[in-house]
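Lab notebook, design round three. We kept the backbone fixed and only want residue identities now. Task for the bench partner: fill in a sequence for the structure below.
Input structure tokens:
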């Protein structure tokens, strides 16, 4: 198979594409797609391309090479979004490691209100409502989004680094 077609499919699609979807489009088995993805990544690296293959959010996408981020931002005049507040970072970490989780559970961990931080994270599409807890009042459950995974370069929440609390190491989704 010509790697140009795979590269073009990833470029045109933009968002992460599953290996199964690529297999369907390319009429290849998943193992063949994996081999082609590896070959494409190696070809891009060998020619020092401005693009790279990234696995994120359960799929694969073509993205600009990380070494070019600063240069592109400077030339395109992009402004970085306002940084997240300390409270928003705390809430995001709690949601990422404890999802699905309710606002009251978050506030019990933080020992303070979290409504504003939750609103910020919802507006930035880093977290989302993922359901309702089977409890009195059926409180909203929050979890991270595909955008969160893309922003942090993760394939799934299980790829979060282990969390060290009080000398003990735990991972997400325990």
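Proposed sequence:
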């Amino acid at each position: 198979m010509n790697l140009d077609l795979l590269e073009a499919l990833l470029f045109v699609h933009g968002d992460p594409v599953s290996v199964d979807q690529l297999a369907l489009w390319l009429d290849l088995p998943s193992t063949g797609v994996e081999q082609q993805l590896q070959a494409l990544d190696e070809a891009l690296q060998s020619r020092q391309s401005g693009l790279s293959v990234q696995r994120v959010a359960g799929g694969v996408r073509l993205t600009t090479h990380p070494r070019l981020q600063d240069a592109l931002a400077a030339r395109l005049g992009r402004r970085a979004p306002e940084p997240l507040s300390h409270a928003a970072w705390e809430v995001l970490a709690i949601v990422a490691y404890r999802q699905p989780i309710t606002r009251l559970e978050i506030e019990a961990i933080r020992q303070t209100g979290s409504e504003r931080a939750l609103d910020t994270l919802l507006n930035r599409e880093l977290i989302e409502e993922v359901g309702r807890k089977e409890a009195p009042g059926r409180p909203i459950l929050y979890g991270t989004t595909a955008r969160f995974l893309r922003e942090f370069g993760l394939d799934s929440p299980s790829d979060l680094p282990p969390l060290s609390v009080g000398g003990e190491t735990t991972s997400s989704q325990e």
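Keep this in mind before ordering anything: The helical segments are 3-13, 19-26, 30-46, 69-76, 86-98, 103-110, 115-123, 146-151.
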